[in-house]
């Protein structure tokens, strides 16, 4: 059974060796799909036995789906893992012991994902553990074509593992806020697309299969997106921090829930408003406005 891991990178010298180390013994090949890093990422990848491929970045989904086309034909399973993530011993053991016996009709495997923020594992707020599909049969899955918050989708049945992967970024808070400023532009594109329909809508949203990712996406698109901009960010933060007791995560948790649960989502709404104002003031169409205001060039 051949498992190939795909790691997307850009300047990930702080995290890559740790990520690769957690994959040793369970994957047959590690593919580092890089978008022209300028630090030691490529040297670390090669020194740790990974195969490096490079491709110009468009979006996370486009980069991952391109990487899928570069895999060997004898690949059985694909594992998606981010450079700042690592697999826990429980998930490693579960993959080793359970995956070989899974029937051929099963297309994907869900596991849990947790996150740390400023060195603290976030346990409250109703955010984690998040159930994510990160392991799937080669040729039966791909990344949904979205600008932000993309998930792997498969058509066939899935199974659930109990093991976890941990998202543990070692970067500074300044780096985190700069990254989320860029993320906010991408998420604004997805929200605007729900309203204007300027590109195909690719989504795992579903209430039928009961999977956490499908239910959360449905709530985000059918409930959250319909609430007034700005107000919905405050409502979401109140739900996480008060009702789901995010305050129990301590000082680091307060920073996380406020920045990720309110500041980031309010920033998304503010960018949506900015695009709409530009359209109103200049008579520009939605695609041009997104380019001029957000600096995001949509694929033609």
Q: How does this structure look, described?
A:
The chain has helices spanning 16-23, 41-47, 60-68, 89-98, 173-196, 212-222, 231-243, 250-282, 286-294; strands at 3-9, 29-34, 51-54, 77-80, 85-87, 108-117, 120-121, 130-137, 141-143, 152-154, 158-167. It is an alpha/beta fold. It folds into 2 domains: 3-167, Spore Coat Polysaccharide Biosynthesis Protein SpsA, Chain A (Alpha-Beta Complex); 173-294, no CATH class. The strands form 2 sheets. Strands 1, 2, 3, 4, 5, 6, 7, 8 and 11 form a 9-stranded mixed sheet that branches. Helix 2 (41-47) links the parallel strand 2 and strand 3 (51-54). It is globular. The relative contact order is 0.12. The mean pLDDT is 94.
Find the CATH superfamily of the largest domain: Spore Coat Polysaccharide Biosynthesis Protein SpsA, Chain A
- Main beta-sheet annotation: 9 strands, mixed
Name the CATH class of the largest domain: Alpha Beta
Instruction: Output the CATH topology of the largest domain.
Output: Spore Coat Polysaccharide Biosynthesis Protein SpsA, Chain A
Work out the radius of gyration.
19 Å
Task: Indicate the low-confidence ranges by residue numbers.
Answer: none
Number of domains in the coordinates?
A: 2
The average pLDDT value, as a whole number, equals 94
Secondary-structure-based class equals: alpha/beta
Helical fraction: 40-55%
Beta-strand portion reads 15-25%
Domain Glycosyltransferase 2-like: 5-99
Family: Belongs to the glycosyltransferase 2 family. WaaE/KdtX subfamily.
Pfam family, one: Glycos_transf_2
Protein name: Glycosyl transferase family 2
